[in-house]
Amino acid sequence: MISRPSSPPDHAARSIWRSADAVAVEIIDQTRLPHEYAVVRLRTLDEAALAIRSMQVRGAPLIGVTAAYGVWLALQTDSGDAALEAAVTLLAAQRPTAVNLRWALECMAHRLRPLAPSARTAAAAALADQLAEADLATNAAIGRHGLSLIATIAARKPAGSVVNILTHCNAGRLACVGWGTATAPIYRAHAEGLAVHVWVDETRPRNQGAALTAWELGRVGVPHTLIADNAGGHLMQQGLVDLVIVGTDRVAANGDVANKIGTYLKALAAHDCGVPFHVAMPTSTFDPTVADGASIPIEQRDAGELLTMTGRTAAGHLATVQIAPPTTPGRNDAFDVTPARLVRSLITEHGIVPATRAALAGLPRPQDI
Amino acid sequence: MISRPSSPPDHAARSIWRSADAVAVEIIDQTRLPHEYAVVRLRTLDEAALAIRSMQVRGAPLIGVTAAYGVWLALQTDSGDAALEAAVTLLAAQRPTAVNLRWALECMAHRLRPLAPSARTAAAAALADQLAEADLATNAAIGRHGLSLIATIAARKPAGSVVNILTHCNAGRLACVGWGTATAPIYRAHAEGLAVHVWVDETRPRNQGAALTAWELGRVGVPHTLIADNAGGHLMQQGLVDLVIVGTDRVAANGDVANKIGTYLKALAAHDCGVPFHVAMPTSTFDPTVADGASIPIEQRDAGELLTMTGRTAAGHLATVQIAPPTTPGRNDAFDVTPARLVRSLITEHGIVPATRAALAGLPRPQDI
Question: Is the ipTM of this complex over 0.90?
């Protein structure tokens, strides 16, 4: 299942692609980062479902695209109506919070159902490719719009100053097909020569900041510093954060934002310290069917993620260590909801809008593929 | 240096004591918890200083008492004026934020300087013992006063309900000679049969919640659940936290509270969700010479604490693993400041007072030993 590392990725590199033999899809196993760069080949529906559930792939946009390719993998075995519906149902059940998963599966099902079974497999490959391309284009547009926020702050600071951006979890290129959502403006600013520095929240309990965001920023050469999730408020009080940009797994009709657990705490601190708090939101992450944040289902994950930690020993081996007393119980809510009132703006592929019901209702719906 | 485990401690157990041969002081090596219970014998000034610096002992009250015993250890070798002053200077320099360290050393120096060198060693032992006893009495009083806050909430909830208390870091018996500050009301409530449950913040990067608070609550049988530092705001939004009690390393004249990094974020969430946020404060932690929180020095610790994690492998060995890419830099501020406006009350040994300049000015100063 594991091939050799490919050439070093950069900010334009993809996190998912069809295999050279055109019968499988390949992903980066994100559970092994930052210690090992391993490409995993997904050949079946079950392997795609497992990749989503086990978080080999994670991040709302990437989950959606992986699921779309999962439908294609399923149809290679059986392209009948029942198999199509079963694949969609199975894939949708792997993670509850990110709406992109259901959105991508609905896109696929909507287009594939009317086709003859014999035509579905090739169509599914093309549709999944289109979703992947759309993700890249969306994130590139988020980068262009978000760049203006960074450039405006840079222009206000003394010449030669660095713009300090705090981010939580990984809404980077590893969470997407490429570019990232929250990172797209950062990569764009870095590419254009603006001096940026990123405070990377560790993001317990799965450490997506320490393991993924630090890794991908390091690969591109964007200056960054890892901090404990506890530290962001203090840094904001000290004037060391110019803006916050995070991603999102689902935005409700009223502008409430579900994102990785702990986002709410950073939004509160940003509000208290007068630091602008922005959410990078592809419109596929907007869910007009959910009235407010309280209606967004919040995934509870295994407490083992909290009670153990995996890393590399001095001898170079990967090891998992238990960090609490053996009888200690844990609780592991994976997401929280940031009320719209704490969000300065939503950075979408169509531009920057306030986190209000009216602004969200006025956005174009994501392009139907 | 390491003796066998003593009998299991309980909430009345001590975290520091003079050795049976009356020439040394013994502590629990808190850097080995929760995996190993090891008692370390401190025989010299340098060993006491190292225990404080290396965080074998930590927690504002325990640091103060350890430093007091450190003066006694120094005087056993040389009880002259220069040695006394050198010991005080060395010990005070080990940790910058907790004011108890300086307060305890000033108590010692003030009483020992007038004595003949030949009388100082015995006096230092007695004075350090007095400081230790005073800590126990102070915390017992904090427990009595804080119990009323828990009992009031219990009385408002339906019969049979559990009172859910969130705490950050370890302001427990391990942070003190005994009882703890933030935990004293919890232990008292538990002892009196009130149904309490504690949400234990992991407290990255040193994991004092996962390693110490979970350990000591477990030893006493207080129901508790470990959570990521990111989770407390979400739990408050969900109505799953009735009150927050934390400790403090220094309270400024205006009521601003320095405590473990991340405390500010929990105070913001508590304020936003209408959850009462209380700070357990022995009056030895009040520093009237510091006008406000911005003037409290905040210790920066080695980033290695953030970049690695130590725990127990499945094979039972202790191992330290690197959790970020090897080239990732980190920043590790150990404390933050919670503005007085976010603090519902201070629980002192003299009663519960608001976090205001007037209330703090009206408190008796800690008893001069």
Answer: yes
